[in-house]
Design goal:
- The complex is a heterotrimer of chains A (about 140), B (about 200) and C (about 400).
- Chain A contains 4 helices and 4 strands; from the N terminus they run ααβββααβ.
- Chain A is α+β, with helices and mostly antiparallel strands and about 140 residues long.
- In chain B, helix 1 crosses helix 2 (about 45-55).
- Chain B has a single domain, classed as 3-Layer(aba) Sandwich (Rossmann fold).
- Chain B is globular.
- By secondary structure, chain B is α/β, with parallel strands linked by helices.
- In chain C, a hairpin with a 4-residue loop joins strand 5 and strand 6 (about 280-295).
- The two termini of chain C are about 45 Å apart.
- The chains are: A alpha+beta (about 140), B alpha/beta (about 200), C alpha+beta (about 400).
- At the A-C interface, helix 1, strand 1, strand 2, strand 3 and helix 4 of A face strand 1, strand 2, strand 3, strand 4 and helix 6 of C.
- Strand 2 (about 50-65) of chain A pairs parallel with strand 1 (about 55) of chain C, so a sheet runs across the interface.
Chain lengths: ~140, ~200, ~400
């Protein structure tokens, strides 16, 4: 689910399309946008406090075979939540799990790792070594 | 995870329509308003289910009476669609759903609100078999020109005495929605009720 | 007292039409897209997200555009919008220790584990206006960034809003090639390092399931617990907090601060969805965190140790979280047995005036018609003057 949450709508749609037409499913809880109160911790590691809200969209779909999949994503994109829910439902289905892992989750994860590596390298290039100048006697 | 019955087919429009209906019912106490219900696990009535899906969210704990709580399906249905959590303590409930009004706990066991926050009281949704204009209770108070008559059954024990006690502590007190299968009537805490 | 007036509908409609025209400006100039605002005025969007208390870059960009760049107005728009959405619940507390770091510096420790990375900073720039940026496209970026199309990402290593075009990136591929490891070293918080030696006060983790104060649900009362203070400061006006933080440095409630650590980056947000049965990852958000290390403090029972002030906010907003950490520490005067001498130590003063939506509402309401109000004062002042004049007359007559 973390991989799906970090992917773009188009990426998930394209990856799912590669699996062929999805099996019959219904939206047991249509896509809905709301807020999640994001919490931080006092001092970074202390008791929780409310930092502020973030928009989030959720959706639940059920396959004809019974599996319920959930999509929970930041932002207001109902399509993304729906696709993520479908992918989650398919992943729970024995018929599809392998295909979802290989054709959806795997490639998305690889792309995300590549992005992350790139960003880490950019950041690492700004690593700094400060040194303290020794003071003279006067 | 087992299947959960779907909620509103058109969540936004249906919730808006239901909200409007409930608001009108509360603003004009005792009038009977038609309400498009939602199929829900028994014994939650379609009208009560529509009210739940409209008014509840994760910040409104709800309480269920014994028949509604029995199977666990009703609580799961409501929680799944609204994010609200079920509570065993009626005094902790923002909403309470009662399928067997005759066996309802005393009104005083629910949240009554405080003088500073009278809104923090329970709204009681009583599922009734019959709801009609005419012989029964005589209502007066804000939202009623003169008096209005309302008949409903079954109702909790000592209903009129309990309503009088509830009225006496205004602005604190519970509000009541009477939910038939496809209709609703409001009985806010501001109401004066006499026997018909 | 304010007494309502009626009328002026046509003038108001026309004023709003004119506003829309002025917002658009000269139609010969291309209209700004939300992506342009989000990418190129990123810090404006970050401020709107932090003080609007709503993490949604696209909405923040829209608000900046609609408000013609007036950020307090944009924050107001975002605050109004958030009231239209239901709340699903609260996230698990974000773990800034596990942040995907893009900037991390310490003014207290030179060699801290994990090292210091400057990231995208204005620090050490010469603050000389770069006239080449006035040319379009900026010559410094021409020819660079062509290798970036693969990446499809701007500053954030995480997902973007759908439809956002990939950003070219200002430095091209050469920058990442300089490091070329793609790995991240562990970067423990500076306060954890000091905490391991007992040299700094701990932050108690709090009891599990203890309620967390929320000023969007219940009005603030005083004294306010630290969770409410931090929520208030996190959405507080940057200018107000900056001035207050500055005042503590100038002696109005001095706390001898060191910037123990400032870090910027992405953290995962997880949400405990009951129906799913576990904490669901929703995606990542950008936050800035500041740990101020302040003057030591001891008592008969505690050995001397450093105290701490904390700042955390949405987006990249270093000045804001530094000021927040200074004010957070100043507000702890009572807890730490310090004398309250400066405005920044006055909890009620700080927390009641930090919100720029509240502040702008009350200040700006003064321009609404107060005709009845003013008329009554006018009558009163005329009567007083008449009475004084009459009294003077009587005195003169008596003297004569």
């Amino acid at each position: 689910m973390a991989v799906l949450a970090q992917a773009t709508t188009d990426e998930i749609a394209a990856a799912l399309a590669a699996l062929g037409p999805p099996p019959a499913h219904v939206e047991v809880r249509p896509a809905e946008t709301g807020l999640v109160m994001v919490r931080g911790r006092i001092g970074g590691d202390g008791a929780p406090f409310n930092l502020g809200e973030a928009t989030a969209t959720r959706c639940a779909v059920q396959l004809a075979s019974g599996e319920i999949g959930f999509g929970y994503v930041l932002g207001r994109d109902g399509d993304k939540a729906r696709l993520a829910a479908l992918a989650d439902a398919l992943w729970q289905s024995a018929d599809y799990q392998m295909a979802v892992e290989q054709n959806v989750v795997g490639p998305l994860r690889a792309r995300q790792h590549a992005r992350l590596a790139r960003s880490r390298d950019e950041t690492a290039a700004t690593k700094v070594d400060f040194f303290t100048l020794v003071r003279g006697d006067n | 995870m087992n299947a959960v019955a779907p909620g509103f087919a058109e969540p936004v429009l249906a919730a808006q329509a239901t909200f409007r209906t409930v608001m009108e019912a509360m603003a004009r106490p005792g009038t009977i308003r038609r309400l498009a219900g939602v199929d829900a696990p028994a014994p939650l009535s379609p009208a009560a289910a529509a009210i739940a899906l409209t008014l509840l969210d994760y910040e409104t704990p709800f309480w269920l009476d014994a028949p509604l709580a029995a199977s666990g399906e009703v609580a799961r249905f409501i929680s799944f669609h609204t994010g609200a959590r079920v509570t065993a303590d009626p005094a902790d409930a923002a909403f309470a759903f009662v399928a067997a009004p005759a066996a309802a706990p005393p009104f005083t066991s629910f949240a009554q609100g405080s003088a500073e926050y009278p809104d923090r009281s329970t709204t009681l949704v009583l599922q009734v078999a019959d709801l009609a204009d005419g012989d029964g209770m005589v209502l007066r108070g804000p939202g009623i020109a003169g008096t209005r008559q309302l008949a409903a059954s079954p109702l909790p024990a000592n209903f009129l005495e309990q309503l009088a006690d509830n009225r006496a502590q205004f602005p604190r007190g519970i509000d009541i929605l009477l939910a038939a299968s496809d209709a609703v009537a409001g009985m806010p805490r501001s109401l004066h009720v006499a026997g018909g | 007292m304010y007494v309502a007036v009626k009328g002026g509908e046509r003038a108001i409609d026309n004023a709003h039409r004119l506003l829309e025209q002025k917002r658009r400006g000269d139609p010969a100039v291309p209209e700004l897209t939300l992506e342009q605002i989000s990418e190129q005025l990123a810090l404006a969007c970050d401020r709107v997200m932090a003080e609007g208390s709503l993490y949604d870059r696209e909405l923040a960009a829209l608000a900046v555009k609609q408000a013609r760049g007036d950020l307090v107005e944009a924050i107001f728009l975002v605050r109004a919008y958030r009231t239209t959405l239901p709340r699903f619940g609260a996230s698990e507390p974000i773990d800034t220790g596990a942040m995907e770091i893009r900037r991390r510096i310490s003014a207290a420790f030179k060699d801290l584990p994990g090292g210091q990375v400057l990231g995208p900073t204005f620090d050490y720039t010469h603050r000389l206006l770069d006239t080449t940026l006035g040319e379009s496209p900026s010559p410094r970026l021409r020819g660079e960034g062509r290798e970036r199309s693969e990446r499809g990402e701007g500053d954030s290593p995480h997902s973007r809003a759908p439809g956002d075009p990939p950003s070219p990136g200002a430095f091209g591929a050469d920058l990442s090639a300089q490091a070329g490891r793609g790995e991240s070293s562990a970067m423990p918080r500076v306060t954890d390092i000091l905490g391991n030696d007992g040299l700094i006060e701990p932050c108690p983790p709090g009891e599990a399931d203890a309620p967390v104060g929320d000023l969007t649900r219940a009005p603030l009362t005083f004294p306010a617990a630290r969770d409410l203070r931090l929520q208030n400061l996190a959405r507080g006006d940057e200018g107000f907090l900056l001035a207050l933080g500055y005042s503590t440095q100038r002696g109005y409630g001095r706390t001898h601060p060191f910037a123990g650590e400032i870090r910027l980056g992405e953290v995962e947000v997880e949400f405990m969805a009951e129906e799913v049965g576990f904490a669901v990852p929703l995606g990542a958000i950008t936050v800035t965190e500041c740990q101020m290390i302040n003057q030591f403090h001891g008592s008969s029972t505690e050995p001397p140790q450093f105290t701490r002030g904390y700042g955390l906010a949405f987006g990249h907003c270093e000045r804001k979280v530094m000021a927040m950490a200074l004010v957070d520490r100043a507000l702890r005067a009572d807890d730490l047995g310090e004398e309250r001498k400066g405005p920044a130590q006055n909890e009620e003063f700080v927390l009641s005036h930090s919100d720029n939506v509240q502040a702008t509402g009350f200040v700006e309401h003064l321009k609404l018609p107060h005709y009845v109000d003013f008329q009554s004062e006018l009558v009163l002042i005329r009567r007083m003057r008449a009475e004084i004049a009459a009294a003077g007359e009587t005195q003169r007559e008596a003297a004569e």
